[in-house]
C-alpha cells in the first residue's frame, strides 16, 4: 500500500504550485525549481530539486536529480542518481548512478549505469542496466539487457527481443504458470519464483547485502535532506501559509498537538467506519492517503517551526527570504533527526513534533482565519 501512496504524496506536494508564481533558486551550484511548468535550462548544475505539474530537465546535472510532478521528463544526463515521482515519468537521458522512480506510467529509454528501482502501474524498460533491476507493477515490458539480478513483482510481463538477464531472476507472483521466462532471457536454473506477499518482506538479500553503518548513515542524512527540501519548497511556494502554520504551532503547542492527534485519529478511524458501510470501501484509500499526507506534512511544519526557533535563538531574524527559510527548514530537519536518536524518549519527542505540526495544518484547513497571518 505504501508504494501506491508515495506517488500521490509527491504530486500533492507539487500541486500547490499551480496557483503560485514559479520559483527558481540557484544556490551553491544546485537548482531548486517549483511552479506550474518547470524546465531546467541554461548552465549545468550540481544537484536538482524540482516540483510542479510538468517538470522537465534539459541541462546536464552533475550530481543527483530529484523531480516530482504530474509529468516528469528527464532529457539531460545525470552524473549520479535520479529520483522521480509522478503520474508519468520518462527517463530519456543516460544516468550514471541509480534510477529510482514511481508513478502510473514509467519509461526508461536510455542506459543506466547503476541499479533501477521502479514501482508503478505500467513500466517499460528499453535501455540496458549495468546493475540490478527491481520492478513492481501491473504490467511490465522488458526489452533490454540487465547485467545484474532482476526482481519482478507483476502478474503480467512481456519480454522483448533485446531482453536478457546476466544474473538471477526472482519472480514474485501468486500465479507462476502465467509468467514464462524464455531461455534466451535467463536459463531455468537462474529463475526462482516466490509468492507475491514475499515481495514486501525482501530484506535486501536478493539485490544487495544488508546495509552497513555507512549505508544507514547515508539514509539518515537522506531523511534530513528530504524533510529540509520539502520545507524549502513549501517556503518558496507558499511563504505566508507556512509562516501562519509556524505561528500557530509555536503559539499554542499543547492545544495544537491535541488537535493534530484528533485529526489523525479521525482519518485513521474513518477507515473502520467506511469499511462497515460497504460502499465506503472505495473511499478508504483516500482516507489513508490523507492520513499519510497529514502526518508527513505535520512533521515538516513541526521541524520547520523548530528550525525558526533555533535560528532565532542563534540571533537571526524571522525568515523573510528563500535562503532564510531554507536555513530554518534544514536546521529543523537536522534537529528533529538528532532528537530521534535519543534512546527511549526520542520517538516520543518526534511524535510530539509531527502532532503539533499536524494540528496546525488541521486548524488551517478547518478554520482558514484562525488569527495572525504573518507577511512572511
For the terminal residues, how far apart are their CA atoms?
A: 37 Å
Radius of gyration: 22 Å
Structural shape: globular
**Number of alpha- plus pi-helical segments:** 7
The count of strands amounts to 14
What's the SSE pattern?
A: HEEEEEEEEEEEEEEHHHHHH
Mean pLDDT: 81
Fraction in helix: 25-40%
As for the number of domains, it is: 2
What class would the helix/strand composition place it in? alpha/beta
Uncertain spans, ≥5 residues at pLDDT below 50? 1-21, 203-210, 369-376
The proportion of residues in beta strands is 25-35%
Major sheet description: 12 strands, mixed
Domain DUF8173: 220-364
Keywords: Membrane, Signal, Transmembrane, Transmembrane helix
Pfam families: DUF8173 (PF26514)
Signal peptide: 1-19
Describe the structure.
Residues 1-19 form the signal peptide. Residues 220-364 form the DUF8173 domain. Helices cover 39% and strands 25% of the residues. It is built from seven helices and 14 strands. The model is unreliable at 1-21, 203-210 and 369-376 (pLDDT under 50). The longest helix is centred in the C-terminal third of the chain and has 30 residues, at 284-313. The protein folds into two domains: 2-201, no CATH class; 213-366, no CATH class. With 376 residues, it is of the alpha/beta class. The chain has helices at residues 2-14, 213-237, 239-251, 253-277, 284-313, 322-340, 346-366; strands at residues 23-27, 30-40, 48-57, 65-74, 82-91, 99-108, 116-125, 133-142, 145-146, 150-153, 157-159, 164-165, 169-172, 191-194. A hairpin with a 2-residue loop joins strand 1 and strand 2 (30-40). Strands 1, 2, 3, 4, 5, 6, 7, 8, 10, 11, 13 and 14 form a twelve-stranded mixed beta sheet that branches. Strands 9-12 form a two-stranded parallel ribbon. It is globular, with a radius of gyration of 22 Å.
Amino acid at each position: 500500500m505504501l508504494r501506491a501512496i508515495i506517488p500521490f504524496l509527491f504530486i500533492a506536494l507539487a500541486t500547490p504550485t499551480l496557483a503560485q508564481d514559479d520559483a527558481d533558486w540557484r544556490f551553491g551550484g544546485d537548482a531548486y525549481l517549483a511552479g506550474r511548468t518547470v524546465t531546467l535550462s541554461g548552465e549545468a548544475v550540481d544537484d536538482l530539486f524540482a516540483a510542479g505539474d510538468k517538470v522537465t530537465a534539459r541541462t546536464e546535472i552533475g550530481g543527483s536529480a530529484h523531480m516530482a510532478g504530474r509529468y516528469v521528463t528527464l532529457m539531460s544526463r545525470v552524473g549520479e542518481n535520479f529520483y522521480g515521482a509522478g503520474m508519468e515519468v520518462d527517463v530519456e537521458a543516460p544516468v550514471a548512478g541509480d534510477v529510482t522512480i514511481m508513478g502510473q506510467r514509467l519509461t526508461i529509454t536510455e542506459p543506466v549505469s547503476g541499479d533501477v528501482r521502479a514501482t508503478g502501474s505500467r513500466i517499460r524498460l528499453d535501455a540496458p542496466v549495468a546493475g540490478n533491476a527491481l520492478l513492481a507493477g501491473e504490467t511490465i515490458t522488458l526489452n533490454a539487457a540487465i547485467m545484474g539480478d532482476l526482481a519482478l513483482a507483476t502478474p503480467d510481463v512481456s519480454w522483448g527481443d533485446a531482453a536478457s538477464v546476466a544474473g538471477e531472476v526472482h519472480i514474485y507472483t501468486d500465479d507462476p504458470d502465467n509468467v514464462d521466462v524464455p531461455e534466451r532471457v535467463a536459463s531455468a536454473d537462474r529463475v526462482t519464483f516466490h509468492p507475491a506477499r514475499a515481495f514486501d518482506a525482501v530484506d535486501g538479500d536478493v539485490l544487495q547485502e544488508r546495509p552497513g553503518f555507512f549505508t544507514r548513515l547515508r539514509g539518515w542524512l537522506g531523511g534530513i535532506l528530504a524533510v529540509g527540501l520539502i520545507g524549502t519548497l513549501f517556503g518558496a511556494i507558499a511563504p505566508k501559509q507556512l509562516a501562519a502554520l509556524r505561528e500557530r504551532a509555536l503559539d499554542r503547542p499543547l492545544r495544537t498537538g491535541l488537535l493534530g492527534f484528533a485529526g489523525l485519529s479521525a482519518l485513521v478511524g474513518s477507515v473502520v467506519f467506511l469499511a462497515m458501510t460497504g460502499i465506503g470501501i472505495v473511499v478508504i484509500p483516500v482516507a489513508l492517503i490523507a492520513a499519510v499526507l497529514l502526518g508527513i506534512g505535520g512533521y515538516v511544519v513541526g521541524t520547520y517551526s523548530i528550525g525558526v526557533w533555533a535560528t532565532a535563538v542563534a540571533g537571526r531574524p524571522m525568515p523573510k527570504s528563500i535562503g532564510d527559510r531554507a536555513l530554518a527548514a534544514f536546521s529543523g530537519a537536522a534537529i528533529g533527526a538528532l532528537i530521534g536518536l535519543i534512546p527511549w524518549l526520542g520517538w516520543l519527542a518526534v511524535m510530539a513534533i509531527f502532532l503539533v505540526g499536524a494540528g496546525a495544518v488541521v486548524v488551517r484547513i478547518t478554520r482558514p482565519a484562525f488569527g495572525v497571518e504573518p507577511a512572511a
